[in-house]
Amino acid sequence: MPSPNTYVKACINGARTPDQHPALPVSPQQIADAALAVHRAGAKAVHLHPKTADGVDSLHPDVVGAAVDAARHGVPGLPIGVTTGAWALPDPEQRLRTVEGWRVRPDFASVNWHEDGAEPLAKLLLGMGIGVEAGIFHAEAAEAWAESEVAEHCLRVMVELGPDADTTVADDVLSAVMAAGSPASVLLHGVDESCWPLLQHAGARGVQTRIGLEDTLLLPDGSPAPDNAALVSAAIELLSR
């Protein structure tokens, strides 16, 4: 059985497109079904990328509202978060105005600290009553976040490392994050090749982690993952050893 302190968040789709995996949730109904499945598998929250019908990430209020509403109806009470990634809307001012127009508000939203306009966007989200997850991709971003006015008000800090990252890199960035003294929870995860090693390292370090089709399409043994729920189950089993 997993420790009651094991915190695994499900990242159910990411910026991936449906051609990359047949179970990648795109429509509101698919998102609701995936949220329920990962919750049953043990996920304590869901991070999703609202998508247009053709699978492209969008921050448009109607698209975000439909995705968040569906997930909430699928699993009432499960914390639901969304991306604010710059790839979905590159202009910082336009991104601010679009997020300001969200009528259905998620419980939290991730803000990548290396992207232009991160701090004003985080302040806007906090003012809207939306929790902020600071996405930290490297030590420089960690230091910039630590010096910001919102560091002490963030819900979570996600150390998000690339496929070539190892535990040494992870420890360096975690040290920079923890030096800030913020009360925010800390989460560590990798992507593709680094996904499973860093998930295990998160367990060893006693920090939160996440798993899902956003981060990997493969189970720990290298076989294709059938869906998000299978990845969550595998992660919890791995962290329980």
Task: List the topology elements.
Blueprint: E1 8-11, H1 28-41, E2 45-48, H2 61-74, E3 80-82, H3 92-100, E4 108-112, H4 118-127, E5 131-136, H5 139-146, E6 156-160, H6 167-178, E7 185-189, H7 195-205, E8 209-211, H8 228-239
Parallel strand pairs: 1-2, 1-8, 2-3, 3-4, 4-5, 5-6, 6-7
Structural commentary:
- With 241 residues, the chain is of the alpha/beta class.
- The protein has one domain (8-239): Aldolase class I (TIM Barrel, Alpha-Beta Barrel).
- It is built from 8 helices and 8 strands, in the order βαβαβαβαβαβαβαβα.
- Strands 7-6-5-4-3-2-1-8 form an 8-stranded parallel sheet.
- Helix 3 (92-100) runs parallel beside helix 4 and helix 5 (139-146) packs parallel to helix 6.
- The protein is globular, with a radius of gyration of 16 Å.
- It comes from Mycolicibacterium agri.
- GO terms for molecular function: 3-keto-5-aminohexanoate cleavage activity.
